[in-house]
Design brief:
26% strand, 7-stranded mixed beta sheet, alpha/beta, P-loop_NTPase, 2 domains, 4-stranded antiparallel beta sheet, Rossmann fold, transport
């Protein structure tokens, strides 16, 4: 868990973070998005203890970053936006140096290095100095260095930078693998489609301010204990409401198009299975039935819209504003 409490950070002549507060849930992947200059990298550097805020407090897994930065570093892996390599060291040498510097017990170091090399597909590059690597391979090596000590919290700032489409797919798989292992991840990127593949929550920054943290998986936010599911059809349906009303336990219809709909389904697996069976029993050609995911791009754009100012209350006959 990462707890951020009213954090303020200034550069000369610029307030980069202005009272940012949020709690990033443990064991989840939070997408950090916002326009250029919104404060994303600054926030990550503050979380990592590389910058000290003017005000506020940050805790990583309950550890105050300002009071015990070394303890935080042992639990944290951080891929910077511009990662500096030891150019003369081979990939394997740099990884061995990193695990030693992080205090990993000697008996565990070789296995952790081998796992990082395997996870990033660096086997054929392990013996090459960083100076000889292409941009994409340098990025893979940097990601390996960020996770080689098996940190509980991982922050990745623009991790897909310099990666080709195949490598980006591998990166998404790696992030999901780390998340399944119980890691807490904060990932900053401008590629919203890829963030949507693995993110459970989204935090939007703009001009140093944070919009409320919101889930990407709609089922986490469904009211009344319901689960939002998306149903896709192989052939169009003219009237979803008529079909749903014929079911023994009609679900709420949240949104509908001819070939897909979002439904508020029962929270239990048996209830959802019964709903699916009922839809098929009504003759629908169901091609997909799964938890609905919010549109990350839509969430991002919504968070960027300015909040409308409260309307000025009408004046009374005396000229004073009504309460």
């Amino acid at each position: 868990m990462i707890e951020i409490d009213n954090v303020v950070f200034d550069y000369p002549g610029l307030r980069a973070l202005d009272g940012v507060s949020c709690t990033l849930p443990a064991g989840r992947v939070t997408a950090l998005v916002g326009p250029n200059g919104a404060g994303k990298t600054t926030l990550m550097r503050c979380i990592a203890g590389l910058e000290r805020p003017l005000a506020g407090r940050i805790r990583v897994d309950g550890i105050d970053v300002a009071l015990a930065p070394r303890k935080v570093h042992a639990r944290l892996g951080f891929l910077y936006d511009f990662y500096g390599h030891y150019e003369d060291l081979t990939v394997a040498q740099a990884l061995r140096y990193r695990v030693a510097a992080q205090g990993v017990p000697k008996a565990e170091r070789a296995d952790k290095v081998a796992l990082a090399i395997h996870r990033l597909g660096l086997g054929q590059r392990a013996g090459q100095p960083a100076a000889t690597l292409s941009r994409g391979w340098r990025q893979k090596a940097a990601i390996a260095l960020a996770i080689v000590h098996d940190p509980q919290v991982v922050m990745l700032d623009e991790p897909a930078s310099g990666l080709d489409p195949e490598a980006r797919g591998d990166l998404s798989a790696l992030i999901l693998d780390l998340n399944r292992a119980g890691k807490t991840l904060l990932v900053s990127s401008h590629i919203l489609a890829e963030l949507a593949d693995y993110s459970s929550h989204v935090l939007v920054l703009r001009d140093g301010h944070a919009a409320p943290l919101r889930p990407v998986l709609d089922d986490e936010a469904a009211p009344g204990g319901e689960t939002l599911v998306e149903v896709r059809l192989a052939s169009p349906l003219a009237d979803w409401a008529a079909v749903l009303s014929a079911l023994p336990a009609p679900p709420r219809l949240i949104a509908a198009e001819p070939t897909r709909a979002t439904l508020a389904a029962p929270p239990d697996a048996a209830g959802r299975a019964a709903l699916l069976a009922g839809l098929i029993g009504q003759g629908l050609a169901v091609s997909a039935f799964a938890p609905a995911r919010a549109d990350l791009a839509a969430a991002y754009q919504a968070a960027l819209r300015p909040t409308p100012s409260p309307a000025t209350p009408p004046a009374t006959d005396s000229g004073e504003a009504r309460p």
